[in-house]
Specification:
There is one protein chain. The chain is globular. It contains eight helices and no strands. With 195 residues, it is mainly alpha-helical.
Length: 195
Amino acid sequence: MNYIYLILLWAVFYASHSFLASGKLKRKLESKLGKAFKWYRLFYSLFSLFFFVILALYSLSIPAQMLLAKGDLLIYFGYMAATFGTIIIVQSSKMWSIGKFIGTRPEEPQTEKKLIRAGWYSRMRHPLYAGLLLIFLGYFFVAGTYISLTHLLCLIVYLPIGIYYEEKNLIAEFGGAYKKYREEVPAIFPKMRFW
């Protein structure tokens, strides 16, 4: 039963993430809140952080049951995957303002945004999702528990949904430029280039 609650918590977390990030909701709130809307991103970030902490605390309360036998090679690959995922997230975050992403440095409504196609974004459209996937996979290899597998599977199920809604917002914002980018660059798994 604990795992069903954990899956439901992830479902609510991901659903609220997609709902609160939807362009339609943001446009409605912007018209109603006026200048106060510039703090919406900070509210969204704090809400997500609060919910994630609740989810993490709940998962820590579930007794751990091992699924994978501990082994040095598996742990090595786990740390490598998590490290590489962290590198992707850190490197790709250099392409945009973390303060604006979190909401501590609100953007002015008339600020023109540019589609980022450099760095990791030249190889995949969603490097943050790719990094998270590697971190969750690494955590599963290192912990080897049913809980870590549940976290990983919930993320894998959500990714296509999250990408769909995020790209709807990006097409609304950047139009044909984003459609062209989407045709040229894969979502998460970069194309391998060989010489």
